[in-house]
């Protein structure tokens, strides 16, 4: 069972308001010929030169046409009747008894056109879908796209679409009664509300409690107020009232628990996250950040923004050498499930740190962006989930979330190296993905609905994928240098990073055995390969691993019980690697299952020449798999701008990788530290010698350049 099937409040995130990065950020971007700094301050490490010339000479990079094309999103829009329903009304409903909302899905037809589709199955007698035609999540994010496009371009059509989708969204918001401020998720094409969808989604009815759709309503209302504050004060005042209606609801629910903590597998987690999610809370925080910027003296909104971002930052976990490598975890009921579906947490924390003047919040965004994201990309790209092993599809939502987080954190932390990663990530839309074909078409504004692990694409272009692709395109259009470098990347040549070796591939000595449970879902995470190895005291397990040209960190994935069960000692042919606890997961608390499935760190790295890892159990142990992490991982991309490689460190000290420099070329490189800031080259001759220097926990961008 997957996470999405278990956690009913379906997450779907948002993008950050396009950030106009100034020269002070020192844009250091790969791909555009040689890597360059737009403006390095005096005394800064030497920047690459030649990007401007390369951009001018390349048709792909010199393209000035906007990438943002709203045609398909507008095709998804439909006119929605707003019938008289108790507790549901909207701005000027008597004068305008209709609004606009996007259909949830768009299925691609054989002739290449698209058909608009609702959620679930269609009842031909009523014309109703078992879920609905439109949903509050997509309406909210559609409003944000049109708001940003209008603000960025002055397009009046986008302004009108923003007004109408905000009117539609606020109609779904329950305005009176005990559920005031909560939101009905689904609506039919004839305007009928569907408070209880089939299959059931929680909360049920959908406006009976806070939810992801409440969080996204706050996001859209916050950005809407900021946009209309000066141009349409009356409409802005309406949006402000509705924003406070939802804030009042949140204060009665999750935010009313601010400062208290729940226990999840022995770890204290914030109890005041919306629907228990850093993902949902982050999206609300993005809207509040826009609103508080516009109305800085609104104490209730500022307080809510502060509380939410403190909770989100509190979900930061791991380090460069400890799983999940600095990621902000999305769900307070699992320590071992990270997902990109709602992955805007670093963008929210980085943005709020600037709005609130809270530099202490920024660390969580930096570790997620500068340490976790490079490991994610090196493991095969922006997968939708690690649970805890990588291995899910890649979708526009998750890709856009990474781009927004990197761009926002680069600006807030003055960390230009993160923009290199943003360019590589955005290249996914232009072909640098497991399928190899573009995932977004700027000529039509369509975006594929996902890429499976084997490279197969889902050719449909539903609202969510379209919305998040457009959010990235708006960000690229707002940042021409970043846009140029991203367009210079259209193919991923290779990724060498985190890999998985199943425990059941090993040789068991003793009475242990392979166990295949009815479901791989534990209640908090997924067993890799659907099975694990049960060991008893004295049993051994020898797991084969490929040889490598470098040392590797090893993370045995152990399904730990709550009670003590001894330890398992791990070694290779030439080295004692360390031990892992078989139990001691901590009190279950609010989680849905006792124990935890977790990749545990070992004290020593596995030598590159060793081809097996052996564990000897000192008690009952459940071993699922092993994660193997090179001390230096790589992502190699190419395109109109040429071939570049990002080297990512998981080492505790500066290291070097040797590359072959062909005659007539030189090696251009820029190293960044563990927070994405430039570091001076350790060896000025390194580029001639072919040695790429990678700072501990940091990353280096390198390119072979013709002399």
From TrEMBL:
Organism: Cryobacterium sinapicolor
Origin: domain of life: Bacteria
Name the record gives this protein: Uncharacterized protein
């Amino acid at each position: 069972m997957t996470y999405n099937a278990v956690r009913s409040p379906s997450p779907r995130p948002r993008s950050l308001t396009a950030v106009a990065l100034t020269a002070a950020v020192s844009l250091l971007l790969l791909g555009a010929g040689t890597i360059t700094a737009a403006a390095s301050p005096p005394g800064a490490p030497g920047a690459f030169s030649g990007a401007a010339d390369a951009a001018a000479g390349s048709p792909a990079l010199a393209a000035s046409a906007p990438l943002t094309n709203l045609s398909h999103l507008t095709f998804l829009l439909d006119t929605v009747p707003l019938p008289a329903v108790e507790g549901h009304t909207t701005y000027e409903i008597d004068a305008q008894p209709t609004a606009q909302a996007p259909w949830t899905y768009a299925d691609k037809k054989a002739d290449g056109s698209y058909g608009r589709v609702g959620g679930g199955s269609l009842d031909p007698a009523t014309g109703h879908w078992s879920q609905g035609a439109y949903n509050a999540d997509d309406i909210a994010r559609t409003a944000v796209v049109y708001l940003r496009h209008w603000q960025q371009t002055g397009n009046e059509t986008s302004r009108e679409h923003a007004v109408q989708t905000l009117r539609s969204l606020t109609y779904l918001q329950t305005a009176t009664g005990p559920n005031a401020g909560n939101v009905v998720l689904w609506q039919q094409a004839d305007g009928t509300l569907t408070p209880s969808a089939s299959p059931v989604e929680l909360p049920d009815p959908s406006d009976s409690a806070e939810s992801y759709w409440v969080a996204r309503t706050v996001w859209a209302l916050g950005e809407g107020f900021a946009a209309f504050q000066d141009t349409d004060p009356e409409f802005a005042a309406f949006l402000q009232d509705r924003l406070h209606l939802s804030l009042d609801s949140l204060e009665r629910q999750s935010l009313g628990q601010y400062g208290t903590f729940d226990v999840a597998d022995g770890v204290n987690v914030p109890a005041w996250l919306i629907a228990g999610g850093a993902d949902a809370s982050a999206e609300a925080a993005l809207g509040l950040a826009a609103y508080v910027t516009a109305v800085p003296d609104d104490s209730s909104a500022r307080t809510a923004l502060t509380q939410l971002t403190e909770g989100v930052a509190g979900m930061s976990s791991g380090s460069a050498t400890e799983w999940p490598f600095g990621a902000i975890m999305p769900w307070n009921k699992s320590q071992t499930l990270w997902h990109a579906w709602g992955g805007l947490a670093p963008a929210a924390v980085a943005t709020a740190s600037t709005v609130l003047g809270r530099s202490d919040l920024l660390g969580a965004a930096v570790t997620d962006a500068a340490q976790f994201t490079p490991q994610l990309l090196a493991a095969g790209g922006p997968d939708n989930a690690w649970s805890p092993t990588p291995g899910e599809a890649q979708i526009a939502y998750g890709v856009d979330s990474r781009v927004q987080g990197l761009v926002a954190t680069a600006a807030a932390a003055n960390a230009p190296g993160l923009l290199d990663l943003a360019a590589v990530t955005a290249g996914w839309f232009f072909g640098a993905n497991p399928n190899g074909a573009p995932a977004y078409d700027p000529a039509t504004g369509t975006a594929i609905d996902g890429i499976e692990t084997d490279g197969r694409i889902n050719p449909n272009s539903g609202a969510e994928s379209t919305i998040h692709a457009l959010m990235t395109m708006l960000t690229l259009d707002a940042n021409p240098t970043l846009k140029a470098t991203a367009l210079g990347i259209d193919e991923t040549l290779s990724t060498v990073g985190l890999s998985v070796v199943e425990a059941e591939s090993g040789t068991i000595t003793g009475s242990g055995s392979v166990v295949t449970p009815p479901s791989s879902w534990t209640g908090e995470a997924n067993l890799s390969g659907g099975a694990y190895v049960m060991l008893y005291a004295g049993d051994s397990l020898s797991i084969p691993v490929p040889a490598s040209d470098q040392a590797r960190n090893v993370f045995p994935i152990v399904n730990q019980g709550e009670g003590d069960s001894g330890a398992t000692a791990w070694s290779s042919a030439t080295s004692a690697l360390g031990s892992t606890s078989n139990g001691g997961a901590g009190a279950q608390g609010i989680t849905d299952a006792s124990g935890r499935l977790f990749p545990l760190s070992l004290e020593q790295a596995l030598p590159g020449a060793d081809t097996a890892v052996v564990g000897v159990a000192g008690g009952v142990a459940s071993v699922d798999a092993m994660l193997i992490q090179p001390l230096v991982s790589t992502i190699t991309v190419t395109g109109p701008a040429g071939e570049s490689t990002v080297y990512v460190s998981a080492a505790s000290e500066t290291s070097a990788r040797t590359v072959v420099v062909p005659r007539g070329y030189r090696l251009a490189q820029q190293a960044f530290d563990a927070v994405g800031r430039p570091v001076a080259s350790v060896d000025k001759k390194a580029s001639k010698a072919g040695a790429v220097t990678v700072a501990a926990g940091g990353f280096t961008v390198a390119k072979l350049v013709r002399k």
